[in-house]
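Quick entry between incubations.
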Amino acid sequence: MKLKPYHSSILATAAALGLAAWPLFFPDAFLYFQVLGMACLYGTLALAWSIYALSGAISLGHAAFFGLGAYGSALLNHYWHWSPFLTIFLGSLASVSFGLLWSLFFRRLRGVYLGLASLAAVEIPRVIIDNWDAVTYGSMGMTGLGKLPTLSLGSWQLAFGSDLKAQYYLLLTVVIGATILYKLAMGSRWGWALRAVRENETAATMMGIRVNRERTKALLCSSYLTGVCGALYAHILGLIEPALVFSLHVSALPLIFTIFGGRTLFFGPVLGALLLYPLEQLVFQPLFPSGHAAVYGLVIILTILFFPRGIAAWITARKSA
Amino acid sequence: MDNRPQICLKVSRLSKRYGGQQVLRDISFSLQEGEILGIIGPNGAGKTTLFNIITGWVPPSGGEVVFLGEKTTDWTPDRLCRGGMARTFQIPQVFPEMSVLENVMTGAWFGQQSRPSAAQARDQSRELLGLVELAAKEATPARELSLMQQRLLELARALATRPKLLLLDEVAAGLSLKAVKCLSNLILRLRTQGLTLLLTDHLLHLIMPVSDRLLALDQGEIIAEGSPQDLIQNPEVESAYLGVRGAAGEEG
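Done. Structure below.
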């Protein structure tokens, strides 16, 4: 009993429409705009992480790309006063450069070894930025970064920097765009090659697939999108510091959201972020102000024990049973 | 010149050392198009190492491999695959979560020199699954297959890359006599389609009836070469197999 592929597309489209429509009925729910907006950002981050995971690589170091994108964009904005819309895309190239180094040095590492190396890799950019006070203001970080600018479409004013509803719609658009791209990638010839690499590298090589090249392509796409997420994050907050963007938390979240949501379906990572992040922020934070992040640990344990393929696979399997 | 069969594979003075261990020494042979060459030898004779060098998994310590007129000693396995060389492994290497059909499609889609469309790849794969009699299992995940079925799947997938040369490593290991019989019929059928084959086996019941020529390997050296009938009567081959070694062969 397999779910027809278009069923999950219908489900995902319905969910996207729901997410786009609910603010029409609750135009003043600012807390929810903010929380769901961030959930969309984390959903994009989880997708970015999953692109690399499609090749079978489990990264514990995506904070490196997140932080470099954030700092790349922040520094361009700070020193040259370029618009964040430009610096977000240019600054994230810093993440891609680090991705190139990563793929060069870690090309022989697999599994747990790659995980540990990636965990350590975050320390390199973090220590450099932490100590290069003259340029990055060190561990003090930077404040007063350019907020996301306002876009004028005729009489429409989309103040992404100050209007939480506009910001929510921006982040929703980003996550929907990323999900569509991710689905297209998974269904493409390249996506098939990555799946082969993930399932059996020896066999994939034997079938003529250039394993290292395909995995590197996945890492570069993944690192760029992660950088974009970091840059968006920095400009939404308007401030940045190394401890914030190079944290283990940032590396762990996309992994948690993806495992919880389900790594086998294209909307799994986003679903995980959209369910878990609001749960943590809106339910657990008021209840347990000091230990709310522990919910992530709890959820991961329960997921692995009871739905090892994630919520998305569990829902779809039940529907078709 | 053109009337003679072309050389498909030529191996010259190939050797391999791992530290102080000489695994292969001065291996030279060639294989004509459409020929089936069997390599026999006891466990540890160097058969798999030889395969790994020819298919680009392991660099040799010396010597060279020429495939279809090109020196391929430093080619990567994926390049060799696209260039027309396919192999199977002693322990079948399947994509466990993919269906049987998807496994074969991967070969058709990525392993050929021309790039077929997904629909063409699917059609070709179905045809090959018919050939190895796995058509009924096309939707089954590969991990659920038996050893024999995984071998056949690996074979179909290797054929999907449209190879000129196919290397089968210990393809009969662990199979029943009946299964071996099926497999040898299949191999003989493939040869009629112009495929060149290189087989290894440490048991003789598959390799004997299908091979045109046999090469006996022992402790990294070719100890005999000839038709299957000649070789089976060769005393050196016999002693290598039975483990009874003359003084000259001791600690070689």
